[in-house]
Amino acid sequence: MKTSAFMFARQTARSDTPFSPCGRIAVVASAIHYRKLAKTEVRRNDRVLEIGCSSGLATAVLARTGATVAAVDCAQEQVDLAISRCGKQPNLTIARLDGRNADLLVGIMPEPTVIFIDVGGNALLDNVAYMIRLCLRVFSPRLMVVRSIEYAGVTAMIDSLETLEHRPIRRISRRSRSAFLLRCLIEQSHSDKADNRVFTIYRLHALGTAPARRRVAQLAADPHPRVRRVARMCLDDWGAVDRPLEPDDGGT
Ligand SMILES: C[S@@+](CC[C@H](N)C(=O)[O-])C[C@H]1O[C@@H](n2cnc3c(N)ncnc32)[C@H](O)[C@@H]1O
Q1: What is the CATH number of the domain that holds 231?
Q2: Domain membership flag for residue 143
Q3: Has residue 243 been placed in a domain?
Q4: Residues 7-25 pLDDT 10s
């Protein structure tokens, strides 16, 4: 019964394909299955972006397909391990980079045809969903493979799915990218996770626009000490520490 419900959800999802900016999304729970898809689903002429490469076990598999691969991880020690495992492959670039930073992702792999995302099997679904949405708005891959135990669990429970007549997530034009990224950052700056809030402060600081400054000023009163410290550091840098708060503009 469970299998047929799952098959139904899969078939319905497939019938949506013409409307989707991404050909297919595969959600897996296990690292073994994820690496297996790296071997079976990637073609030699693909351009692959891998987010969360860790020590490079899946990266090595992706590079062996002959595709052009850019693998990133936010942890320097993991990047070093990945480089020592497979850094000599000529078709592979490995870099320390935070996958939440779309500008840097575009810089390292402008038009990936395949995206692999594994920021930890136990990562919060909110974080995984944020990254999927970001990638779908910025890129048009033919395939996205996502590893998330929570997402796979929720997906397996789906037994009916409404077929959409419009694209659920539209790719944004290059021109409107910065406004979109600012909205994303302001949205993510309300995350429950202090780490996400700290990340957005650094990015908002780099943008330095009026709405970015206003949001950082609000985060200087965050309940978490690290968030407050980083926000105040940025305000100091702007020389705006004593500036009164202006009303929120709704994140635009
Ligand atoms: C479970 S490991 C990935 C394992 C890998 N897929 C494999 O097959 O060996 C998850 C990795 O995601 C990285 N990570 C977590 N959040 C990230 C982010 N926002 N950007 C880039 N990497 C991230 C972590 O540093 C960690 O190395």
Answers
A1: 1.25.10
A2: yes
A3: no
A4: 444 444 444 444 445 678 9
